[in-house]
Amino acid sequence: MPALSLPWGAMHYRIDGPENGPTVIFANSLGTDLHLWDDIVARLPGIRAVRFDKRGHGLSDLGGAVTVEGYAEDAAALIGAAGGAPVVFVGLSIGGMIGQALASMRPDLLRGLVLSNTAPKMGTAEAWAARIDTIRKGGIEAIADPVMERWFAPAFCNGPDLAPWRNMLIRSPLDGYVAACEALAGADLTANTATLRLPVLVIGGEDDGASPPDLVKAMAALIPGARLHILPQTGHIPPVEASDEMAALLQGFIAGL
Ligand SMILES: O=C(O)CCC(=O)CC(=O)O
């Protein structure tokens, strides 16, 4: 369990796959840790997969307040430490916002970008403040059921495989979750994302209640040449719910770079 020592504390990461494979960095969504990508990494044995727990999530320290750009600086430091630049960056939701910020701040580090179930701006400051208020009073459990309905299409949400992911959410460190909500409330990457000029694959989910298809399509339209794929009967978290389909999309994108 390696950790990168950064000014705010320790950032947990792991590397899987062959040393000579293409380096692919994976960035998680809100309230998840690097196990989000287990089924994807298992399906792509040829890549060198670098995963990390962003500040305040999983086994990483929090440190204090953070912005999406701050998370992106952490990802840049990890790319420096892990080597392999320029890398392919795959980010889901807030992880995709980290990817958008990183691609505009440090285009030299990336050769391809996958933006999954994300947008340049997600939610409103008022909605994030209300969510923070709810969980400060009742814990993350208080929001878990509606979050699951945004994360997963009905068949998965009502099935036997939901429990581990619900547990991952409700066991997230509360202060880390709140810090990420505050980062989301303050982030609008629209102008930066419109300047991106690299190969981009955009993935959405037909049943995504957190970043609905129209939001994802609008982001794709900002980026010249971006490829767009909306997965049917899939919610906000395709690496869990549609891992075969998402792995195939990633495989094709990486092979074409
Ligand atoms: O998943 C994210 O990173 C942020 C978007 C969101 O609000 C997801 C959720 O429904 O909790």
From TrEMBL:
EC number(s) from the headed UniProt entry: 3.1.1.24
Gene3D superfamilies: alpha/beta hydrolase
Origin superkingdom: Bacteria
SUPFAM superfamilies per UniProt: alpha/beta-Hydrolases (SSF53474)
GO molecular function (one): 3-oxoadipate enol-lactonase activity
GO cellular component: membrane
Occurrences of domain AB hydrolase-1 (ranges): 25-248
Keywords of the record: Hydrolase
GO biological process terms, semicolon-separated: beta-ketoadipate pathway
PANTHER family: AB HYDROLASE SUPERFAMILY PROTEIN YCLE (PTHR43798:SF31), MONOACYLGLYCEROL LIPASE (PTHR43798)
Protein name: 3-oxoadipate enol-lactonase 2
Species for this entry: Pseudogemmobacter humi
Lineage: Bacteria, Pseudomonadati, Pseudomonadota, Alphaproteobacteria, Rhodobacterales
